[in-house]
Amino acid sequence: MDANKKLVANEAVKEIKDGMTVGLGSGSTVKFMLEALGERVKEGLEIVGVPTSHQTAKLAKELGIPLADFSNVDGIDIAIDGADEVDPHLNLLKGGGGYLVREKIVDILAKRLIIIVDETKIVDYLGTYSLPIEVVPFGWETTRSRIAEFGCAPQLRQKDGEVFISDNGNYLLDCDFKIIHDPAKLHDDLKALVGVVETGLFINMADVVMIGHAGMVDVLT
Ligand code: 5RP
């Protein structure tokens, strides 16, 4: 699986050109992408990166990738990110690592969003992977009850025995829908609830999905 992630990461990095502002996603596939990008920067590629998580920022710095302060960024030429699931319409379920809000802010700004995955992420319908929903801590129990009415049993995400706190100081509810027939509607309905900050459904955002499998890269557009 790692070989496929690395393959697809290397392929995506070829799309990055001199002078670009590059959105840097999060996750283990993106880690391979950062390593490949770091090599190209060492060879003289001049870009500036916009990280979507503390982890990505830390690794990018270690690899010598110059980073921009997001407050000073007007636009993003290209973003490269991972996903937990991709459906045939290129809708995505993301946020397994807990960085869905920052990822969505950066990815949506990108003129071109490239998603890099291995073949295990390709599904007919989103929802087998639990959908992360970021909620404000205040009154999270009532928000959870209202989310549950959509047909799942939201679980408060924990890490190392403690409540997981997002990069934005919020909680995450992981919601096992099993199958999401209309992700756009579900996203809109969930977003309409007071207390919901964002969902891990990335609707109609990906321009390209690169899939690594059996030593090859397939491209969906
Ligand atoms: C983090 C994400 C990741 O992109 C997603 O979880 C995929 O990660 P990986 O490449 O490790 O499978 O959305 O919030």
From TrEMBL:
Family, similarity comment: Belongs to the ribose 5-phosphate isomerase family.
Pfam family, one: Rib_5-P_isom_A
One function term, GO molecular function aspect: ribose-5-phosphate isomerase activity
Gene name for this UniProt entry: rpiA
Complex formation: Homodimer.
Biochemical pathway: Carbohydrate degradation; pentose phosphate pathway; D-ribose 5-phosphate from D-ribulose 5-phosphate (non-oxidative stage): step 1/1
Recorded catalytic activity of this chain's protein: aldehydo-D-ribose 5-phosphate = D-ribulose 5-phosphate
Protein name, as recorded: Ribose-5-phosphate isomerase A
Free-text function comment from the UniProt entry: Catalyzes the reversible conversion of ribose-5-phosphate to ribulose 5-phosphate.
Record-listed E.C. numbers: 5.3.1.6
EC class: isomerase
Keywords from the named record: Isomerase
